[in-house]
Structure formats: structure tokens, C-alpha cells
Amino acid sequence: MASNPSSGASTPNRFTSQKTTAEELLSTQTVGLVALSDFRKRRAEAIEQKERDAQDLLTGTSNSSGRATPDDASTPKEPPLKKKKRKVGTPKLSFGMDEEEDGGEGTDAATPLSGSASPRSGTPLSAKDSAAKKKGVNSNVAVAPRLLTKSALLKEAQTRESLRKEFLALQEAVKATEINIPFVFYDGTNIPGGVCTIRKGDFAWVFLDRSRKVGADLGVGEKVNSRREWARIGVDDLMMVRGNIIIPHHYDFYYFVINHTLGPGNRLLFDYSSEPPTKSTPPSSDTTTDTYNPLSVPSKTKPKDVTTDKKDLEGTDDDPTYTKVVDRRWYERNKHIFPASVWQEFDPEKDYQKEVKRDAGGNAFFFS
């Protein structure tokens, strides 16, 4: 009976391994949460300890009693670690900052060998530092700095002013250039009207007023008193139709010339040059704005200056049927009849190249 306690105490030892593995040795040394570098260091020491024990057993000089598994009492206590202060303004995730902080603590406490075992902790810092350096450098070394003194600013202002005056002079030269516009009077049939000489800077109503005077001088019309009718008619009662486009009165010809405005059929509405003439043409007396009166009644004694042919001007050989002078009252009575049904007022926002021609009922023409 007295041997029962001893036998009871010795019974479990037969089924328990007397050798401690590296994992058991590591578990005795590791308590709680430790840094990754510290854990790797302790695991390496435990593996080395087991290899030394196995080598001693093979050589017969086992001194495992002298090399006992180090515990907390035999392991020298490490000095208290100092926490690193977080840098303000680092846009990282919370668990990424904790891992970086833990890795930094382990790196401070570890040996140089253990510091080389965890290269990940240094990579984000170097990338962040390089990004900060790239972000800080924002100077363009290719551009040489220039001092904006009063003389330099004055010189730039004078250059801009000279360029502006040069452009205005060029624009006025183009506007002052005279052109010829052959036209016909249209009231269902083409009635020859002649050639009207105007400037590129004149408005459409100026052309209509001069064509009105031409109609009064020629006596265009079926009535006996057609001359009197043309003298009484106003500019607002006339329309200028260029092709199938009705030109509004307030548009000047320079607008169409300088913008190269296209009409139906991919044809320029006013095919005139936008460059100034090589030799300026002196303005005639009838085109002077100071003495010109649109309300004046044409005189029979005056020569027909508006129809004087100048063969050296642009537009002299143009087709006269392309430009029609139409009475607005006739147009209102016959706008449902072809060709007046396809006439449309000019719209600068409209693309006439993609337009499908339709009649008044909205039906597309088969030839459009």
C-alpha cells in the first residue's frame, strides 16, 4: 500500500515524452503577444538549442543538464521599450500602422542580425520618403526666370497694342475692298437686274437699297407706273436670297467672307477672298457713309453709278441667278410654291451640309 503513491506518480511518465521539442521550448519562452522579429529570434534560438542537444547525444558528451532550457529567470530581462511617436499626416490603414509600430519596436530591441531578417518594415518608409521628396520638388528648371520690370511690362503692352492696330488695319482694308454682285429680280421669273458694286464691309440692306434704285431706274415690273412703285418701296419690303438662303438685313458680307460660310450643296455663300488687296482701290463717292442717304429718291439725271461695270473686281463673272432680289409681299403670297417653299432664313448655328431638304409639309425631296 505504501508503494501506491510512488507507482501512481511514475505511471504517467512512461507515456510522456521526455524530450522537449522546439515548439514546446518556444512556447515556454513566449508569453503573450510579442513582436514578429522577437518571435523569429526566439524560435531560431530554440531550434539551435535542440540541434546542440541532438549533437551532444550523438557524440556521447551530452551536457543537457548544464544547458537547460532557458526560462524567464535565466533569460536576461530586456530594457523597457520606448514607443515610437506616430508621424502626423501618414495616410495608412489602422492595422497597417499598428504592424509598422510593432515592427519598429522589435527592430529597435533586436540585434543587427534580426534587423536584416525583416526587410518589410523599411520598404514603406523609403517609398513614403521618396514620394514626399517628389512632391516637394515642384520647380521647372527648364524655364529660366524672368523679371517683370516696368520696362518689360511696358514693352509687352506696346507689342500687343501694335499687333491690335495691325489687325484692325488689315480688317478695315478687307472691309473697304469693293466687289461686284450680279443679281436678278425675282417674281416667279428671273428679271435681269445688273451688277451692284459694294464693299465687303457693307450690310445686306445696303445692297437691297441699291438694287431698289436700280429697279426704279430700269422700270422693272409689268405695271405702267413701275418706276413710281420702286421709288415708294422700302428696304424692309425686299429680301436678298442667295441660292436657297435668305440673308438677313443686319448681316454684313465680311461675316460670310471671313468665316467661309457654306450653304447647301457645299458651296460658299459668298465666294470672295478674305485677304486684303495688293493695291487698295480708292473708295467711290457713292459708297461714302457720310454722304450716303438710304432714303433718297433716285434721280433720272444722275448717271447709273451703282450699275457701272468694273471688270477688275471680284464677282463680276458670277451667275446672276444665284442672287435674287425678291419682294417680301410676293414671298408671303407664294412661299408654299416651289422654289420659294425651300427658301430658309440663314442660321449661323445650322449645318447645311447634313440637312435633308423637305417641303412645307415635312416630306423629304427625293433628290435631296
TrEMBL record:
Compositionally skewed regions (Low complexity) per UniProt: 273-291
Positions of region (Disordered): 1-31, 46-136, 273-319
GO cellular component term of the entry, any:
nucleus
Q: Which InterPro entries match?
A: FAM50A/XAP5_C (IPR048337), XAP5 (IPR007005)
Locate the FAM50A/XAP5 C-terminal domain: which residues?
Answer: 177-356
The record's Gene Ontology biological-process terms are:
chromatin organization
Q: Where is the composition biased (Polar residues)?
A: 58-67, 113-124
User: What ranges does the record list as Basic and acidic residues composition bias?
Assistant: 46-55, 302-314
User: What is the name of the protein in this document?
Assistant: FAM50 family protein
